[in-house]
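ok trying this again, last paste got cut off
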Amino acid sequence: MAPYLIRKYQESDRKWVVRLLSQGMAEHIPATFRHVLKLPRTLVLLLGGPLALLLVSGSWLLALMFSFALLLVLWFLAGRPWKEYVDMALRTDMADITKSYLSEPGSCFWVAESEKRVVGTVGALPVDDPTLQEKWLQLFHLSVASDHRRRGIAKTLVRTVLQFARDQGYSEVVLDTSTMQLSAQALYQGMGFQKMGQCFRTLSERLVDVHEVHFIYHLPSAQAGGR
C-alpha cells in the first residue's frame, strides 16, 4: 500500500482535481438510473406506454422503440444532476481554486498525494450567512480516486478540515451530500456528523427524486476544550 501525503493545493494539481471531481460525480449515474427505474411514475411509463402504443397501433416495433427511447431519456435525466453539479462548480469556486480557497485565512483546499499523483481532495469555505451568530465552515468536494479507497484517505481529509476549523475558531462544520451517496453518508455519520435535513437543490434532482442531505458537526467551544 503506497503512502499518501495531505498537503495544500497547488496550481499544478488542477488537472487531477478536476478529473477527480468529474469522475466522482459520474460514478453516481448508474445508481441514480436504477433508482429512477424503480420510481412508481417510471414504472407506469415503462409498462403503460408501450402497452398503450401496442393496443393503438398494433405494432410491437413501435412499442419497443418507445421503450428504448424512454430508457435513453431516463439515463439522460439520471446523469443531469451530477453533470450540473460539475458544471456549476467549474463556473464558481472551482474556476479558480487558489483564489476561492487559498486567498483568505479562513478557507483552504487540500489534496491527498500518492506516488506523485493527486488521489483525494477536500475544500473548506466559511459559510456566508449574516444571520449566523457563530462562525460556520462548509466542507466541499470530498473525493477519493476509486483505486485508492478503503485506505483511510477520506477520513484523513475530513479530519484535516475539522482540525482546521478548530484552529480557525469555527463552531460548526457543515456539508451537503445526496441520498444516492450512501457511503459518504455513512462516513460522515461515523465521524460524528449529524443529519440536519434534506431538500431538492435543483429541478433535475426533483425529477429523479434525489435529495440533497445536510450534515453538521458541532465543534467543542474553546472554553470547553481548555478544561
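PB: full thing came through this time. The chain has a mean pLDDT of 92.
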